[in-house]
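Here is an idea for our session: we take a single protein and study its fold together. To get us started, please write out a protein record for me. Start from the sequence, derive the backbone structure tokens from it, and show both lines together. Go ahead whenever you are ready, and we will take it from there:
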Amino acid sequence: MARDLSELDDESSFSRDGETIDDSGNDGLLHRRSYMKLAGATTAAAALGGTASAAADDYEVIEARGQTIRVGRGDTFENKLIDFTTGESFLIYVEGANSVIRNIGFKGLYRGASFIISINAGQGDILFENIYLGDGATKEGADFVHGPGAVFMHKGSQADLTFRHCNVQGFPNNGFYCSNTPVGGSVRFESCFGKNNGVSTFRCGSEDDEIVNCVAYNDTTDYGRGYGGYIETDGRPVWVWNGGTVTIRDSHFADGPYPYALVAGANGSPGSVDFQSGGYRGTIQRASGSTVSIGSDVSRNPDLSIPDGVPTSPEEAASGSGSTGSSSSGRTDTNDEPDLPNLLLVDGSPSDATRYEFTVSGEVEHSNAKGASIDDGDTIDGSTVQGSVGDWKDAFRYAGELEELTVDGPGSVLINGEAVDPADYGQEKPHVLEVVGSGTPTSYEITVDGAIELASTDEPATEATTVSGTTVQSSVTDETQTVRFSGELTDITVTDGEATVMLDGEQIDPSEYGDQELPPHALVIDGVDTDGPSTYSFEVDGTVVKSTYQDASIDDGDVIDGTTVRGAVYNWIDAYWFDGDIADFRLRGDANVDVQYNARDQ
């Protein structure tokens, strides 16, 4: 299980080969004896001698044999592919500022005992650009608690570090370990990507530190690949402590089994975060004395795609083909094309869901401008878009004019930065559904996920028609009844006769609309009034599906595997419909659990 934050080690010292290695002195991450044991040259140029294999045209391949590459002041180390398939270690030790480490790809599972890149430099700038560390590491052979990590900044380092277009995945002991308070130094992450790193991916704390246009998330508890007998459970996308306020812009994070997307503070050292724009899924944890400011441009629906320019293979990194060669000041709008000059932004509200639909006269595409998310559930059919937002934003770039706009809910719509009134654009309820009688009395029921109204001029008797929120119930004999609605048609049922149903001028089959009958019983896990997160698992001997029963949320992090369910709650409710019996149930935490049999009949 995950340890409490108060117990977390700051990793400033660890033990290997029976020695304690303390980073408070000048020896740095590796003890001098460990340096002496490494076979290889002490400069980048000398280290290449005798280790380089036949190289590609645009980069050199170096087989890992325990070398230490020292990068001094003003040096550049670039266009190298480091081959870890040898099973041995490799260290880039950056001891001088005004240096550049660029276009470096690390290929294969790392089996070393320490970090791969270590920084301990004086004042000046250091650029790490286009680095691939995505093949991960194993904990086998490491005899200290977390195992090996990717990047480490020493306490005494005074340099200002920039990490741009870096890909770090699968390291059990931090992706970027940069929270040791520097003496006048800082760290900035630009367009970097991290996944499934133990302890944390982005770890920092200086008041000048920034995380810009970055993505990190976890979807496993097995941090570090290939090792056995040790399961790390506390992987945080972001961990801030030991310094001033860290600024986060246009960045997106998501939790995993460890239910925190961002953690501020630990071990008596508070952390401060100004999260200005982007998105996150999960919980934000604030240790004692810590502060986290969440801006209005931060959504709860993160875009977890890899930022532009990040290399996705060691060869791509080594050749430089993954880098754009320029700094990014924010998440790229992937649809910012001259032929799509207009931007429509749907700004959701935390108070309730908002359903929207619009039609334009030209082409339309998804956009992630202004911190908007891109959701596969939002559909584009020709020039018509349908979607929904909660406490986040959706955006679309389009050509031509906005012809129709319907909004159901508290959200607002902006066109090129200006708020608009949906009533100024087309019909309030743009869809038309007609039920054509066949000469015999026929009953029907129509349900939509927007708003609906009966629009027929020849209306039936009042007692035969029910309009309630999103549903119309009525009957026809030989007449035609018409309803107008917004949103999508979710269910139509025709009984006691026959009728032809037309949707927006085309005949449809009513049997193709509506869900199958859901299971009758409800299981509710309520974590709203608890002091901390609760995890649960259960198994039924029938079917089980997620539910919004009793205002429960539906979270992609909750997993249904056949008839077995695993999930977590904290300040929210999870619910499930099921049939049969509950064969097994386990709960860790203080959540309230309620089983309601035949809940649909209550």
Observations:
- The CA atoms of residues 103 and 421 lie 50 Å apart.
